[in-house]
User: Which sequence fits this backbone?
C-alpha cells in the first residue's frame, strides 16, 4: 500500500538525527567552513549515534538495519545540519556499503567490523574525474591486469580524504568496464592534493593521481575475477539518492532561515513575510522541497525493493539539485545584504547547493 | 505504517479499468467534443452513469483509500479532462453536502444519484466581483416564512447547466445572509434542479475543457425550503473559521478534500502529453538516457527528464495530501501544495510538449495542442495558483488570512 | 553611435501602424479567430498604408525605403493588433522580398510591380515540413533537374495560403542545398489542405504536397543556374527577426490587457495590481518585453548593415518566443477565470505565442 | 537619431583600453585579493589612480556618452568586480554631490580627486533596521550652532573604510532631521574622512567581491560644518518626491544615474563567466550551432544560447537606460529595468557556468566559482531585485509608493 509515513523506528532515527544536527552539527558549521576543517568531536559523537553502523550486517557487529529509505531520511537530517559535516559523518558508507553489498568474504571480514567498531573510521571513494567529458560509467582512469596485480592509472577529484582514511575505493575501467579497486592510502604511485572548492569546504577532498599504482588482484571489489560493472551502477544510484536527500536537507535549512528572517525583518512597519513577493517565494520553496523529498524517497524505496532505480535516482537527483540551488539562492535573496555576508548561513548553503549538479557518490544510502 | 510506493492490488486494478475507459470511451471522442463545444456527450455520459451504478465487485480488499480516488481521476483525465468533468455525479456540490450536510440532507440530495437517469451536482461560488475573495459575495439569501429566497448571479459554475437542468440534480449556492458580516454571513444552500427562479443565462466559450459546461446562473427570487441550508443559519461576525459553524468552514473543508483530486486531474492531463511525447520520440528513434553524463545530454533529453521529475513530484505531493485524509490528518497545507504544484507543472509540461513536437505539436490533427489548452484551467480553477500559494504561505508562516492576503 | 531612438520617419510609421492596429486590426481579431477567416477589408486598408510596398524598390513602384529595422518596428505594431492578421498583412513579403533581394531581372519585373500595385496581393512561402526532424537548411523536399525543368517532391506545412495567392516560393534541396522555386498555385501535382492549428487560426495556412511538380528552370529564385543557398539563409534570418518582432508585439498586447485588468479588478477592497505577486509579475513582463525588442532590433540592424546576422537572429527569436509565451501565459493567469474564456483575448495570445518556437519565415523584414 | 548598435570609435578605443587593464592589472591578482579579504590592493589602486589622473588624449570626437561609461564598467568588472569597487574615485558619494550639491560643494569635495594621493568617496544609507525602507532611517542630524551633529550606525557601506580613512575622501551620510516627517525629513550630509566622531567599527566578510571593503560606520556626535548638507534643510512633510527639494529627490536621482552603471558591472561579471565557458567549450571541441534545428540541439548548446540571449538583453536594457540620460530623458523606469534584469541574469549565468564546467567549475583553481560568488551581489545591492521590480511596477501601473509597496 502506498504510504508516506516513516515507520516508528525510522521516525525515531529522524528525530534523533535532527536533534543532533540542530544542536551539534549546525553549531559547528560556520567555523568548520571558514577553517576548512572538520569538527572531530562531532564526527565521533555521530558515530556513537550509529548512523552508519546501524546499517552494516549484524555478522560484523553492525545493526543489520539496512534500508536506503532510512539512509535517505538520515542523510537529509544530517545535511540539514551542515552538508560538509554530513558528508564526513557518512563517508564510511563509501567503503563499507559497497563492500557489504559486493565485497568478497575476505574484504567484508577485513573491513566491516572496523567500520562497525567503537571508533569512527572515515571512508573514501574516487569516482569523479577532473575533466569536462567525465562519464562515471566510462572513467578515463584505467585498471590493467598484470600478473597477480592490477595497475591503475588516472586522475580523480572530489575524493573525500579525511585524516584517518586508510583506503579508497577507486573506480577504474578494466577493458572498458567500470570496476572498483581497494587502494591503500599509502600505495606507491598514489598522490593526493587537497582541493579548494566553492563549497563543502570543511570536508577535506583531494585531487588524486594514480601513476602505475599496483594492487593485488584480490583487492578488486568482490575479489579476483569479480565483474563489478553492476556494482558501479548500484554505487551511482545509491550515491544519487544520497545526494538528493542531502540536497533536500540543505534546501530545508536555507528555507527555514529565510522563513524565520522574513517573519522577523520589518520594513515599512510590517514583517517582509507579509509581502506577497516574499511570502510566495517561501511558499514555492516549501512546495519544491517536499516534492523533491518524495522523489528521493521513491528512488530509495525502489533500491530497497531490489529493482532498477536508475531512472528514479537520476530524476530525484536532477530535481533535488535544482531545488537546492533555487532555494538557497532564494534564501540569500530574502536576507538581502545579510544573505551576502558570512555572518549568516545562506551564502554557505548557496555554495554547497551548487555542487549537487556535479557531485557523484559523496555518500551512499 | 511505512514509506511505500507499491500500490495496493485494488489500485492497480482500478487504474487498469479506468485507463481502459479512457482509451476506449474518451480518447476517440475527445476531439469531437472539443470542436462541438457545449454539446452533451450523451453516449459517454450514459456509459459512465451505468458504470457508476454497477461498481465492479473486484475492488474489495486492501485499498489505497483516497489515493485510489486520485488514481482514478488521473486515468480519466489522461483520457480527457473536459469529458471527465461531464461525468454525471454530485461532484463538488456533493462534497459540500457530504462535508456540511445533516444525515437527512445527505440522504435527500445524494441518494437520488444511486439510480434513475444521469444526474449532476454543482457548486456555485464565483461572482463577477467575487473570485478568490469569497467574502465579497453579493448573492443574498433571506428567509421568508419557511423558505430561503436567493438573489444574485453566479459565474464559472462547472456543470451548472447539467445540474440545474436535469431532474434530481442540484446546485450548492454560496450566498450571504448579511453582507456586513463578511465571511461570517456566508452560507451555502442547496438549490434543486429546475427550481423556479434559477436560470441558466450563458455558457462560457473557453480555451480548453470545452466538453465541460461552465455556466452562468441567475437567481431571481429563487425560493428553496428552509431545510436546504447547509449548516447553521447563525451569523458569526467574529472569525467564522474558528466558530465551529459547518457553513463556511465546511465549505472550505470541501476544498481540502477536492484539491488533491483536482491536482490528480492535472497530473492526468500532464501525463497524457508526456506519454504521447515519449511515444513519438521513440518512434523517431530518440531515446532518453537517464544516466548520460551532462555534457552528452540533448536539449530534448533534459526537457523530458525535467518533465518527468516535475510530473512525478506533483503526483507524489498529490498522493501525500490524499493519504493524509486516510490517516485523518488535516491536509490543508499539503492539499494546496499539491494543487499549486500540479497546476503549474501541467501547464508547463503541455506547453513544452507542443514545442518539442514542432509542427505536429501545433496542429489540431493531434491532441497535444488540446492538452495544452485543457491544462491551463488547472492553474486557475479550484483556487488559482496564487490562492494556493497564499494558503501555503499562511500555513508555513503561521499567519492568519488577515495578516497575509 | 549607439542609439535606441527610431528616426522621425520610423516613428511616424510606428505611430501610424499602431493606430491602425489598435483601431482596425484589434477590433477584428476575435471574430477572425473564431471564424478562422481573415477580414478582407482590413487587409486592403493595410495595403493602402503601404506597410509592405514602401519597402519595395522604387523602380517597380515601391517606396524604396527598405530597412529590416523599420520592418521589425512595423511587424511589432501589426502583431500588437493581432498576429494572424499581421501575418496576412505581411504575407506579400514572403514572395516580394526574396525576389527583390535575389530574384532574376525577369522575376523582379514580373512580380514586384504587382506587389507594389494598388491592390493587396498575398504572398506565400513553403519552408517548414511536417516532420519532427525538420531542418530548414536541409529540407526533405527535393528539386531535381530534368532538362529545362525542375521536378519538386515533398510535403510542407504552415504555408500561408490565402485566397488570391498566385504563387508560392518553395524551399527544396537541390543536390543537398536549399534553394527557392517559384511555383504557381495551380501547378499540376501541387495540392493543398487547409490546416487547423492551435493558433493563428484566422490566417489560412495549408499543408502542401508536391508530387512531381514541374517548373521551368527559370523559375528558380534568381533564375536558371543561380545558387540559392545563401538566399535561404537570408530568408531564415529575416524571417526570424520578423518572428521576434511579432512575438514582442503579441507579448505587449497580452501585457497591456493584464496590466489594465489588474488595475481594474478588485479583491479584498483593492485592485489586484496592488498585490506584489501581480505587480511584480507585470514588472517582469515589461522588462522582458523591452529586452526582447532590443534583441530583435539589433538583429535587424545587423541585417541592414549587410553583416551575418545568423547568431543575432537566432538569439532574438529564441528570447522573444520564450518571452511571448511567458507573458501570454502570465496574462491568462492575471485574468484568472476571465483569462480562460474566449470573451477576453489573453487565451488567444497564449495560443498564438506558443507557435513562435516552431514557426519559420511566416513573414520577412 | 536612428536605431544603431555601432559603437562610436571612442567607445571601441575605451573598451580596448579598459579590457587591457582588466586582463593585465586585474585578472592576475583577482584570486589573491579574493583570498586575502580586506587587504588593500595597493599596486592596483595606485595604477588606477595614476591612470585616472592622466586621461588618454585619444578619447575625443563623437562619443556614446553615458553608454561609454557603461562599457568601461563592464570591461573592468569583466576583469574583477571586487577590484573595480576598490578603484579610488568619489563613487556613489560623488554622484550624490554632483546631483544635489551646490557648485561650491562640488568644488570643495570633488576637486581633491583631481590630484594628490588616491582618495575614495562613499555613500552611507543602509542601517540595521532600514534597508530598502529609507524612510526608516534612524541616524539623526541636528544643528548646533554652525555645525550638524550626526548620530547613528550605518552598515553595508561600500568603500566605507577607504572613504573614512584616507585624506580627501568623504562619506555621504543619509540622516533624518525629523523622524516624524518620514522621507521628508531625510537629508544627506558630506562627512570628510577622519572627521572625529566617525568610526570604522567593522568590515563585512562576504560571499564575493571580497576585494571591496564593506564597512560598518558609527557616528557619535560627529560634527560637520553647516555647509556640508546637500540640498535644503527644510523638512517637507507632504510628498518629498514632488517637493523640489534636492535632498531626498537628488539622492534618488543618484540611483537613476548609478543603476545603469551597476547593471553594466553585472553584465561584465556575466560576460567573464560566459567568455570563459565558451573558451573552455571550444577547447573541448564543443561548438555552439546557433542555427541547429531544435531536435539536434544539445543541452549545453541551448544553455549557452540562453545565456547569450539573456546577457545581451541585459546589456541592451542597460545601454538604453544610459542613452536616455544622454538624451536628457527621465530614465527612472528604464534604469530599474536594467538593474533588475542584469542582477538576475548575471546570477543565473554564473551559476549555470559553474554547472556546465563540472568539477572544474566548482574548483577554486579557476575563477568560475568566484564569478558566481561575485555575481550575486548584483541581485542585492543598489536596490535589490525586489526593490527594482517594485519601482518598475509602480511606473508601469502609475502607482505611487504608498499605493504599491
Assistant:
Amino acid at each position: 500500500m502506498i504510504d508516506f509515513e516513516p515507520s516508528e523506528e525510522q521516525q525515531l532515527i529522524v528525530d534523533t538525527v535532527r536533534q543532533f544536527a540542530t544542536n551539534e552539527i549546525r553549531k559547528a558549521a560556520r567555523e568548520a567552513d571558514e577553517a576548512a576543517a572538520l569538527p572531530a568531536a562531532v564526527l565521533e559523537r555521530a558515530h556513537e549515534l550509529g548512523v552508519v553502523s546501524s546499517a552494516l550486517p549484524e555478522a560484523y557487529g553492525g545493526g543489520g538495519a539496512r534500508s536506503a529509505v532510512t539512509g535517505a531520511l538520515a542523510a537529509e537530517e544530517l545535511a540539514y545540519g551542515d552538508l560538509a559535516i554530513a558528508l564526513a559523518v557518512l563517508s564510511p558508507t563509501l567503503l563499507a556499503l559497497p563492500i557489504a553489498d559486493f565485497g568478497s568474504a575476505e574484504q567484508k571480514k577485513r573491513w566491516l567490523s572496523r567500520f562497525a567498531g567503537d571508533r569512527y573510521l572515515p571512508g573514501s571513494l574516487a569516482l569523479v574525474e577532473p575533466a569536462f567529458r567525465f562519464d562515471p560509467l566510462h572513467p578515463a582512469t584505467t585498471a590493467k591486469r598484470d600478473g597477480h596485480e592490477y595497475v591503475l592509472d588516472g586522475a580523480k577529484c572530489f575524493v573525500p580524504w579525511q585524516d584517518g582514511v586508510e583506503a579508497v575505493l577507486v573506480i577504474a575501467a578494466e577493458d572498458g568496464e567500470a570496476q572498483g579497486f581497494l587502494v591503500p592510502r599509502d600505495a606507491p604511485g598514489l598522490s593526493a592534493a587537497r582541493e579548494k572548492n566553492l563549497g563543502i569546504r570543511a570536508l577535506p577532498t583531494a585531487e588524486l593521481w594514480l601513476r602505475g599504482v599496483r594492487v593485488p588482484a584480490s583487492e578488486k571489489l568482490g575479489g579476483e575475477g569479480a565483474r563489478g560493472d553492476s556494482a558501479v551502477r548500484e554505487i551511482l544510484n545509491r550515491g544519487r539518492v544520497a545526494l538528493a536527500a542531502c540536497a533536500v536537507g540543505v534546501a530545508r535549512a536555507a528555507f527555514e532561515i529565510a522563513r524565520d528572517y522574513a517573519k522577523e525583518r520589518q520594513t515599512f512597519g510590517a514583517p517582509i513575510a507579509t509581502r506577497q513577493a516574499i511570502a510566495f517565494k517561501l511558499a514555492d520553496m516549501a512546495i519544491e522541497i517536499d516534492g523533491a523529498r518524495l522523489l528521493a524517497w521513491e528512488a530509495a524505496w525502489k533500491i530497497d525493493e531490489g529493482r532498477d532505480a536508475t531512472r528514479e535516482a537520476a530524476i530525484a537527483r536532477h530535481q533535488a539539485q535544482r531545488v537546492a540551488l533555487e532555494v538557497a539562492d532564494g534564501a540569500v535573496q530574502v536576507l538581502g545584504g545579510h544573505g551576502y555576508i558570512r555572518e549568516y548561513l545562506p551564502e554557505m548553503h548557496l555554495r554547497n547547493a551548487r555542487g549537487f549538479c556535479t557531485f557523484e557518490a559523496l555518500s551512499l544510502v | 505504517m511505512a514509506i511505500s510506493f507499491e500500490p495496493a492490488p485494488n489500485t492497480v486494478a482500478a487504474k487498469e479499468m479506468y485507463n481502459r475507459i479512457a482509451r476506449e470511451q474518451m480518447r476517440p471522442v475527445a476531439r469531437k467534443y472539443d470542436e462541438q463545444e457545449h454539446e452533451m456527450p450523451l453516449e459517454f455520459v450514459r456509459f459512465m452513469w451505468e458504470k457508476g451504478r454497477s461498481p465492479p465487485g473486484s475492488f474489495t480488499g486492501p485499498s489505497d483509500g483516497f489515493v485510489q480516488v486520485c488514481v482514478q481521476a488521473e486515468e480519466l483525465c489522461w483520457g480527457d479532462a473536459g469529458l471527465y468533468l461531464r461525468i454525471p455525479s454530485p461532484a463538488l456540490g456533493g462534497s459540500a453536502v457530504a462535508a456540511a450536510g445533516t444525515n437527512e440532507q445527505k440522504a435527500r440530495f445524494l441518494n437520488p444519484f444511486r439510480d434513475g437517469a444521469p444526474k449532476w451536482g454543482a457548486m456555485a461560488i464565483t461572482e463577477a466581483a467575487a473570485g478568490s475573495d469569497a467574502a465579497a459575495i453579493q448573492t443574498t439569501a433571506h428567509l421568508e416564512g419557511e423558505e430561503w429566497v436567493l438573489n444574485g448571479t453566479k459565474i464559472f459554475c462547472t456543470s451548472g447547466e447539467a445540474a440545474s437542468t436535469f431532474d434530481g440534480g442540484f446546485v450548492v449556492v454560496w450566498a450571504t445572509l448579511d453582507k456586513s458580516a463578511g465571511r461570517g454571513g456566508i452560507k451555502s444552500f442547496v438549490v434543486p434542479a429546475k427550481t423556479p427562479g434559477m436560470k441558466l443565462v450563458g455558457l462560457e466559450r473557453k480555451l480548453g475543457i470545452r466538453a465541460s459546461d461552465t455556466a452562468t446562473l441567475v437567481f431571481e427570487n429563487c425560493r428553496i425550503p428552509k431545510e436546504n441550508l447547509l449548516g447553521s443559519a447563525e451569523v458569526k461576525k467574529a472569525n467564522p473559521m474558528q466558530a465551529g459553524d459547518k457553513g463556511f468552514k465546511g465549505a472550505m473543508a470541501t476544498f481540502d478534500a477536492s484539491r488533491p483530486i483536482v491536482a490528480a486531474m492535472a497530473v492526468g492531463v500532464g501525463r497524457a502529453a508526456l506519454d504521447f511525447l515519449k511515444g513519438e520520440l521513440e518512434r523517431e528513434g530518440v531515446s532518453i538516457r537517464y544516466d548520460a553524463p551532462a555534457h552528452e545530454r540533448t536539449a530534448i533529453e533534459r526537457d523530458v527528464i525535467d518533465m518527468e521529475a516535475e510530473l512525478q513530484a506533483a503526483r507524489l505531493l498529490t498522493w501525500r495530501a490524499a493519504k493524509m485524509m486516510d490517516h485523518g490528518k488535516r491536509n490543508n497545507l499539503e492539499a494546496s501544495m499539491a494543487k499549486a504544484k500540479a497546476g503549474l507543472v501541467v501547464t508547463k509540461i503541455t506547453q513544452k510538449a507542443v514545442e518539442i513536437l514542432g509542427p505536429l505539436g501545433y496542429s489540431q490533427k493531434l491532441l497535444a495542442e488540446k492538452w495544452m489548452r485543457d491544462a491551463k484551467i488547472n492553474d486557475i480553477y479550484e483556487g488559482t495558483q496564487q490562492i494556493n500559494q497564499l494558503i501555503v504561505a499562511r500555513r508555513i508562516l503561521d499567519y492568519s488570512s488577515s495578516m497575509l492576503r
Remarks:
- The two ends of chain B are 37 Å apart (CA to CA).
- Chain B has 13 helices and eight strands.
